[in-house]
Amino acid sequence: MSSTGSTYGDIHRYEPARESTAAAIAIVLLTVVEIVFVFMFTYGLVNGWGLSDTGNMFLGGILAVIFIDLAFILALYRKEFLPDVMIVKKRRRKWEDLYIREEDVDGETLGTDAWEQVKRAVYPYYKR
């Protein structure tokens, strides 16, 4: 679904999510695996596995597996269950990000001609 609107905030493209059953089952299974590894990490932490060198490496490996599994869960969820939406955004020039307010884009007029020359030297994109 596309729209022809070009004002800020209009939805330009909207593609609904696939919401496949296989992805839902995979997310549930990965969540069960995540819970098992979190339980193993907590059990090892409480029992002091981290006090020895090999136990500390084992706990680090379990923690790495926990975050990798979580990354797969979130990637599957984003890919299969979130719609693809593109909205129209305000196009801005690169140098506009340097200013906080829109009225400060042109600089401030505080002085006379000498000050204008300083502004042009410091700020090369000065509107002429």
**Spatial strand arrangement across the major sheet:** 1-2
E-strand count: 2
SSE pattern: EHHEH
Query: Which value, in Å, is the CA radius of gyration?
Result: 27 Å
Shape assignment: flat
The low-pLDDT segments are none
Overall residue-averaged pLDDT value: 79
How far is the N terminus from the C terminus? 42 Å
Helix content: 40-55%
How would you characterize the largest beta sheet? 2 strands, antiparallel
Q: What oligomeric assembly is this protein in?
A: single chain
User: Could you say which structural class the secondary elements and strand pairing correspond to?
Assistant: mainly alpha
Number of helices in the DSSP assignment: 3
Indicate the proportion of strand residues: 5-15%
Overview of the molecule:
This protein has 128 residues and is mainly alpha-helical. The chain has helices at residues 21-46, 53-81, 113-122, and strands at 11-15, 84-87. The chain has a two-stranded antiparallel ribbon with strand order 1-2. Helix 1 (21-46) packs antiparallel against helix 2. The two termini are 42 Å apart.
